[in-house]
């Protein structure tokens, strides 16, 4: 079914991996022939900033999400004015004059009497003169929506159905004292105006949905379908917040994470599918759907991201990494052989630079700063230099060479391979030694073996 969906971040901070989950599920639904709207919920002018909106747009593009339409609520105030007038005319939006302190005192009294601390609708009873008197005192009203009573049950595409008891909620404030609108209203007005047919958002919005369905109805607008996904949390159960900076999309991109590692984790965690890297967003969209969401929170360990990233890098074809290889001066068959040799050792693609540098190093710098070789190691390296076969080399060369060194020195296993590795790479762990030897070629290998003995 072709739905019009929207992703509606408030530009008050950076997008983090939890927001990605919402954006992706909307994107997947839009991908079924529908439309994707990016809406900036920026009516909170004190906290909204253009730089955050710009960063969000860039983050979405990095993930591969290209909105069909971008709107911002601050451009649409006339629509909210008109909707507020309609609600006022219907007697469903009423002015209230209580100060925050007065409201708090009411709640304290209600709790003391064992009552739920919901707004008592005292302002509904104010007569025209009383309101005029309060305004004359200098009080400015805030405006509340008169909720219908009783439970609201609605279908949810992530589960069967949900119920919100509107009778247990305070009438929500839709307009602040300063005349600015609250999200509860603006979101409904926009969803109606933009023809949104499906709202996909986190389950922290379930109560809002009950309230907003009542608002759609009060405004005579068609009620969209809803899907509330479970929320990504850390394994310690803490929800992710905008303050979780290392998990902001921007920080993850800067650290070198692949967009599909972030997207796969964001979409697959807390579903009936294993968290494995998908090739692209289309593959992810065909794997997972709203109905696959688990009931509990979607817990993840940030270390999982590295696992996914490594798996993606290990499978990257050389064509996908040509630019980075060229930056290291590697091209053509040499670049392909290099990539094939090192990719299995990398977590991030940028780490290839370190191995390119090791490959290009001058022989006498390879072991600079490393612990000197022991007498046994020196014997192995000396025998290896002696036994290094003449070119041309083939697939059997490395095996034949190390066998000869073993026969000569009696060293085997780690005692054989570690000194060779250290002499040829300058470090104790890294790519497979056979392919690395081929990358070096006979002369460079021989120079390194000799240099290690100096
Ligand atoms: N601006 C709201 C938020 O970021 C949007 C929620 C919604 O999707 O309606 O929580």
Q: Would you kindly provide a brief summary of this structure?
A:
Helix content is 45%, strand content 12%. The protein has 454 residues and is of the alpha/beta class.
List keywords for this structure.
binds glutamic acid; Arc Repressor Mutant, subunit A; three-stranded antiparallel sheet; 454 residues; 45% helix; elongated; alpha/beta; 3 domains; Rossmann fold; three-stranded parallel sheet
Write structural notes for this entry:
Helices cover 45% and strands 12% of the residues. The chain has helices at 17-30, 50-63, 77-89, 100-112, 128-136, 183-193, 206-218, 249-254, 259-268, 281-287, 303-314, 322-327, 332-342, 352-360, 375-387, 397-409, 414-425, 433-452, and strands at 4-7, 35-40, 69-72, 93-96, 142-145, 151-156, 159-165, 173-175, 198-202, 225-229, 232-234, 298-300. The strands form five sheets. The protein has a three-stranded parallel β-sheet with strand order 1-2-3, covered by helices on one side. A three-stranded antiparallel β-sheet has the order 4-5-8. A two-stranded antiparallel ribbon has the order 6-7. A hairpin with a 2-residue loop joins strand 6 and strand 7 (159-165). The chain starts with a strand and ends with a helix.
What is the typical, i.e. mean, pLDDT? 95
CA-based gyration radius: 32 Å
Query: How many domains is the backbone divided into?
Result: 3
Q: Kindly provide the name of the CATH class of the largest domain.
A: Alpha Beta
Which cofactor or ligand species appear?
glutamic acid
Give the CATH superfamily of the largest domain.
Answer: HUPs
**Whole-Å distance between the termini?**
72 Å
What fold name goes in the CATH topology slot of the largest domain? Rossmann fold
Helix content: 40-55%
Low-confidence stretches are: none
* Strand order, largest beta sheet: 1-2-3
Shape: elongated
Strand percent estimate: 5-15%
Largest sheet: 3 strands, parallel
What's the number of extended β-strand segments?
12
- CATH architectural label of the largest domain: 3-Layer(aba) Sandwich
SS class: alpha/beta
Order of helices and strands: EHEHEHEHHEEEEHEHEEHHHEHHHHHHHH
């Amino acid at each position: 079914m072709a739905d019009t969906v929207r992703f509606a971040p408030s530009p008050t901070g950076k997008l983090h991996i939890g927001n990605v989950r919402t954006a992706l599920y909307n994107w997947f639904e839009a991908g079924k022939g529908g439309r994707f709207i990016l809406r900036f919920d920026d009516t909170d002018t004190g906290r909204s900033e253009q730089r955050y909106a710009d960063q969000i747009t860039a983050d979405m593009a990095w993930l591969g999400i290209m909105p069909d339409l971008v709107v911002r609520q601050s451009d649409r105030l006339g629509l909210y004015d008109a909707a507020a007038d309609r609600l006022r005319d219907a007697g469903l939006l009423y002015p209230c004059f209580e100060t925050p302190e007065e409201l708090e005192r009411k709640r304290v009294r209600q709790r003391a009497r064992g009552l739920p601390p919901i707004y008592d609708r005292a302002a509904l009873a104010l007569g025209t003169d009383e309101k005029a008197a309060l305004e004359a005192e200098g009080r400015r009203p805030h405006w509340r929506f008169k909720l219908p009573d009783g439970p609201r049950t609605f279908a949810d595409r992530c589960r069967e159905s949900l119920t919100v008891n509107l009778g247990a909620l305070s009438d929500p404030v839709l307009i602040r004292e300063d005349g600015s609108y609250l999200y509860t209203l603006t979101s409904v007005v926009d969803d109606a105006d933009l023809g949104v047919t499906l709202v996909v958002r986190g389950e922290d919005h379930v109560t809002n949905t009950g309230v907003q369905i009542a608002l759609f109805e009060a405004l005579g607008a068609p009620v969209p379908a809803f899907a509330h996904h479970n929320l990504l949390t850390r394994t310690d159960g803490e929800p992710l917040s905008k303050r979780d900076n290392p998990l902001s999309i921007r920080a993850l991109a800067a650290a070198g994470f692949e967009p599909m590692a972030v997207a796969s984790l964001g979409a697959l965690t807390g579903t009936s599918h294993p968290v494995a890297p998908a090739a692209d967003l289309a593959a992810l969209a065909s794997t997972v759907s709203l109905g696959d969401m688990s009931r509990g929170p979607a817990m993840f360990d940030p270390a999982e991201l590295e696992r996914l990233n490594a798996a993606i890098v290990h499978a990257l074809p050389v064509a996908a990494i040509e630019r980075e290889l060229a930056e290291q001066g590697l091209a053509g068959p040499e670049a392909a052989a290099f990539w094939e040799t090192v990719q299995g050792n990398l977590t991030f693609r940028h780490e290839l630079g370190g191995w390119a540098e090791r490959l290009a190093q001058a022989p006498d710098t390879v072991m600079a700063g490393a612990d000197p070789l022991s007498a046994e190691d020196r014997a192995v390296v000396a025998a290896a230099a002696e036994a290094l076969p003449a070119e041309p080399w083939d697939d059997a060369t490395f095996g034949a060479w190390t066998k000869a060194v073993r026969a000569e020195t009696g060293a085997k296993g780690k005692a054989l391979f570690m000194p060779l590795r250290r002499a040829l790479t300058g470090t104790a762990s890294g790519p497979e030694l056979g392919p690395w030897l081929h990358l070096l070629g006979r002369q460079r290998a021989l120079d390194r073996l000799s240099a290690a003995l100096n």
